Amino acid sequence: MKRLALALAAALLLAGCGAKSKEATVAKALSLDVTGAALVSSYDSHGGFLGDGTGCIALSFPDGRLEEQMAADPAWHSLPADETVQTLVWGTQDEGASIGPCLTDSEGAPLVPAVQTGYYRLIDRHSDQTAPLLERGSFNFTVGVYDADARILYYCELDT
């Protein structure tokens, strides 16, 4: 009986070791040190066919340390965003037609609020990167947007 209890305890501990914190997920995906971050919000609709869905984690930072990392990393760009990121995150108007945003919750509301000052990074995870991202029939990307005024980092994924 004692061995069974020990085996069960060990199995539970090992199962817990595989779970990643939201902060660790963001740090790994965006190559950032997010030590000291506080979770603001989290949304995830993944779990559909082949794991399709949308996810967004917002982390706040008490100091400006994150900005220094982004300014030193050429993968991060100063806002305003380029046309692709603008369309994916906030949407665009083109000759009277609205395009996007693609990163929305189940009600269709944008997951990232308008951001004026900060940085962004787009990571294309699609297997076919020959066609421009906005012209593909499906999306697999990660985007990070840092609001320097509010000191909030938004990490979002879309898999279709």
Topology:
Blueprint: H1 2-17, H2 22-30, E1 38-44, E2 53-60, H3 65-72, E3 77-78, H4 83-89, E4 92-94, E5 97-99, E6 118-124, E7 140-147, E8 152-159
Antiparallel strand pairs: 1-2, 2-8, 3-6, 4-5, 6-7, 7-8
**What is the rounded distance between the termini?**
48 Å
* Overall geometric form: globular
Roughly what fraction of the amino acids lie in strands?
Answer: 25-35%
Strand order of the largest sheet: 1-2-8-7-6-3
Quaternary state reads: single chain
On the 0-100 scale, what is the average pLDDT? 83
Q: Which stretches are poorly predicted, pLDDT < 50 over at least 5 residues? A: 1-19
Protein name: Lipoprotein
Signal peptide: 1-21
Keywords: Signal
How would you characterize the overall build of this protein?
Helices cover 25% and strands 29% of the residues. The chain has helices at residues 2-17, 22-30, 65-72, 83-89, and strands at 38-44, 53-60, 77-78, 92-94, 97-99, 118-124, 140-147, 152-159. The longest helix is centred in the first third of the chain and has 16 residues, at 2-17. The protein has a six-stranded antiparallel beta sheet with strand order 1-2-8-7-6-3, with helices on one face. It has a two-stranded antiparallel sheet with strand order 4-5. The chain has 160 residues and is of the alpha+beta class. Residues 1-21 form the signal peptide. Keywords: Signal. This is Lipoprotein.
